[in-house]
Amino acid sequence: MSWLYLRKFTLIALGLVLMVFAGVSFFESRHLKEPVVLSRGVTQVKKLSAYFPGVKGTISDSNIYVLEGAKPGGTILILGGTHPEEPGSRLTTWILTENAVADQGRVFVINSANRSATTVTRLGGGYPPDFTIHTKWGEQKFRMGDRWSNPLDQWPDPEAYIHYPSRQELAYVDIRNLNRAFPGRANGTLTEKTCYALIQLIQKEKVDIVIDLHEAELQYPVISTIVAHEKGQNLAAMASMMISGTEGFSIGMEYSPPALHGLSHREIGDHTQAISLLLEAPEPFLDATRGRTDRRLLLEGKDEFVVKAGKHGLLFEKMDENGWPIEVRVGRHCSTILQILELWSEENPEKSVIVKGVPRYAEVIEKGIGNFLHDPAKADPKRVYYE
Amino acid sequence: MIITILYYVLTAYIAFLIVWNLLKRKKWQEEILYIIILMPFLLRLFRLK
Ligand SMILES: [Zn+2]
User: Fold this and answer.
1) Fewer beta carbons within 10 angstroms: which end of chain A, N or C?
2) Which residue of A has its CA nearest to B31?
3) How confident is the model at residue A4 (pLDDT cuts 50, 70, 90)?
4) Domain encompassing residue A296
């Protein structure tokens, strides 16, 4: 009898040791502080709750970096981290907030649109909790994040998710998906409240264009493309042509399906004055047939199993042994944003948004992302914010 | 909010049942199984994942 209990408690103790290790890792990744060294172009840092007090005091009260040019013009909002497990999206916003300067018009940048989702990784997925970008001054660590809000902030999920206000039934788990909860509602879930706050921001600041940054698996047909609301079709088509002709990579253009609800490219365009565009870059890490799911795959985008899937004709984007490194994905986003702004400004001179200091595709690949991240230890502490 | 609290109570109750069953098992393989099953319940209760 006593031997039986000794065995039981030894096994329980071993189980607890395992749980403590996992728990510490989860806790640290949820609370990892990611510094943003403000570019001299950032004129103001606001909170999302300034537009909707319903998110005040919640984990999703994100920072909003405002870059205001001396000359008045249009207003652009760039969303990173709608799906934090697509790191190319957040890293692009880091390059913007640490380097961009607006000469004309205003640029609003949110690095963690769904901040709750940045604090968790896929449950049972065995994902890395974080990843590191090498810089000249050392290393900068980022939270890995997930596609959905953290269940610690919004739980449980319902059996069926009925989207508000369309009443369309979506996958139950997508009740925590920021890109399935637009336009949101003031008395809804945390994810819906976050969407509602973003809509308030877009309306109050009279945003002209919203660009939502994403990455997609290669087995998904919506990839390497600009998904455009009707209002932005000409702009997206022109950008797609210009990029394919001048930037050294090609990007397609797709129409936002009118009957698919909750997505930023649909609902922001429908419920506000803004043109809504969504950019997709290829991320092999997200492919179901990938091999080892580690930091290397996340950053280098190389995977022999995804290459093999390509040989069987299962992919919607090319994939070879060079993979899709993070610099290529972030570079695509940077150039696409710049082309959209340039074309918009040409067509709408009084609503121009002129931005400098942002590297283009070729430059990001040549110099690496770390080259555009600044050392928080050497910066004026008043100019360092944390995500 | 009330539903969330109820789910935490439910999680605690199931965690208690798992521990109870674990103590009653005779085979070590089953004990290990119960310990593995218990972990996600505890991680949620301690608000770690
Ligand atoms: Zn996405």
Assistant:
1) N
2) A8
3) confident
4) 34-386
